[in-house]
């Protein structure tokens, strides 16, 4: 099976649900069409007054495994175009993971610390024969769409906002529950070593990091809760 990456960005406005929400809807639609969801990741880019982002300047990447080629995912262009919020500047990129070469990854890395241009995104995508489309407004979202694909392919910069079963996890689970969701546990060890009977308190919000291409949840021991808890905690209500 081929791994297909669908990057989207700038699909929202100040009062609408965020790009992460649309990314999860798109992942669900891919599943309905016979593709296998591999997770949705959020990718953070540079926050700078020169960049006209809506709230957080983050893009999203939907990963799916398909039996056919990239054509199975091209419906995403229309899907996003029809659901992008009024006044947004959406962009969508679709690529096979094995087609994302070093120039795209370098562009993606640069998006985390530099102001980039839409024409550079289009030029790189054309050179790599990767479909990239602006779907309205200024088309500024093509930068984040291409960069989201690049960072997901690079595998070490992002956070999972969706995985099969992730949002159905109960408040308290065991290690096997995380394993079934495809999550690798990494322990921030202090004075306690994990045991097979340990409890893991999700705190109602589990968003593993993208590390070496995998979903990795870093946990630490809480004496107060008598359980392992995620190091990354919810700071504010995200529109994901």
Q: Keywords for this structure?
A:
single chain; 240 residues; alpha+beta; Alpha-Beta Plaits; six-stranded antiparallel beta sheet; 26% helix
Can you describe this structure?
With 240 residues, the protein is α+β, with helices and mostly antiparallel strands. The protein has two domains: 159 residues, Alpha-Beta Plaits, CATH 3.30.70; 61 residues, no CATH class. Helices cover 26% and strands 27% of the residues. It contains six helices and twelve strands. It has a six-stranded antiparallel β-sheet. Strands 8, 10, 11 and 12 form a four-stranded mixed β-sheet that branches. Helix 4 crosses helix 5. The longest helix has 14 residues. The protein starts with a strand and ends in a 10-residue tail after the last strand. The mean pLDDT is 91.
Describe the secondary structure blueprint for this structure.
Blueprint: E1 2-9, H1 19-32, E2 36-44, E3 58-66, H2 75-83, E4 91-96, H3 102-111, H4 118-127, E5 132-134, H5 141-154, E6 159-162, E7 172-173, H6 175-180, E8 183-188, E9 200-201, E10 209-211, E11 214-222, E12 227-230
Helix pairs in contact: 3-5, 4-5
Taken as a percent bin, the fraction of beta residues is 25-35%
Could you tell me the mean pLDDT? 91
CATH topology of the largest domain: Alpha-Beta Plaits
Binned, the helix content reads 25-40%
Largest sheet: 6 strands, antiparallel
- Kindly provide the name of the CATH class of the largest domain: Alpha Beta
Radius of gyration (Å): 18 Å
Shape summary: globular
Q: Give the class from helix and strand content and strand pairing.
A: alpha+beta
If classified by CATH, what would the architecture of the largest domain be?
2-Layer Sandwich
Strand neighbour order, sheet with most strands: 5-4-1-3-2-6
In DSSP terms, counting alpha (H) and pi (I) runs of 4 or more, how many helices?
Answer: 6
**Total DSSP E strands:** 12
Total discrete domains: 2
Order of H and E elements: EHEEHEHHEHEEHEEEEE
Terminal Cα separation, in Å? 28 Å
Low-confidence stretches: none
